[in-house]
Amino acid sequence: MTLRVPKQWVGEDTCAIALELTGDTVPARSGQPLPNSRIKLQPVMSRINLEMRAAPSAAEGGAPTLARRAVHDPALLKKLRRATELLGSERITPAQLEELERDGKLEH
Fold first, then answer.
1. Looking at the chain, which runs of residues are DSSP E strands?
2. What does the pLDDT look like over 11-64, one tens digit per residue?
3. Can you give the residue ranges of every domain in the chain?
4. Which of 43, 45, 49, 105 has the alpha carbon at shortest distance from 80?
């Protein structure tokens, strides 16, 4: 099976897209009980996140909250490194950083 996203659905400034797929078997079996069980079958739902390209920098017209920025403050660098470890991602948003800070997870 091949999934194709038409180019006209993706804006030129799109950094990432999230696809949510739902479906049932053919023939449909949703609502039918599992064999030897009272549990009824449900449609399947899956979410796929695709990275399209890196966000443009603020100098290139990118949104300030999404754009890449050079960080020179040692204290902020330390927090970003810790956030990277905790979240398992090289991309940390200001909102993620604030949440980790609020939860006290950035303190060693």
1. 16-23, 44-51
2. 776 777 888 888 998 888 899 998 898 899 999 889 888 877 666 666 777 666
3. 1-53, 62-108
4. 105
Residue type, 3: L
| Residue 78: strand, helix, or coil | helix
Exposed/middle/buried for residue 52 (C-beta within 10 Å: 0-12, 13-18, 19+):
middle
Nearest partner of 90 among 45, 41, 55, 38, judged by Cα: 55
Q: What is the pTM of this model?
A: 0.42
Q: Are 80 and 38 in contact (CB under 8 A)?
A: no
